[in-house]
Amino acid sequence: MPLSWLGVKHKAIEVQDQGDCICEEELDRSADNVIKCRRPGCEMQWYHLACVKLQQKPHNWTCEACKKSDGG
Ligand SMILES: [Zn+2]
Ligand SMILES: [Zn+2]
């Protein structure tokens, strides 16, 4: 009889590689409606344009979180 570990769900304690957008919805990095933060070490890196209130992709774009840690 197999031991049932089903239903035991670990919380994500491990260091995550990179997140995908603040909305936590699926993000296709090759899609046209996504943008990448240019700042190295950005926690999130990838965002939907809509989620960061952009209509087009700036050439060098930094996300809000990075702007804050840059000090303006
Ligand atoms: Zn999003
Ligand atoms: Zn960033």
Automatic annotation (TrEMBL):
The keyword Cytoplasm does not apply. GO terms for molecular function: zinc ion binding. InterPro entries: Zinc_finger_PHD-type_CS, Znf_FYVE_PHD, Znf_PHD, Znf_RING/FYVE/PHD. Residues 20-67 form the Zinc finger PHD-type domain. Keywords: Metal-binding, Zinc, Zinc-finger. This is Zinc finger PHD-type domain-containing protein.
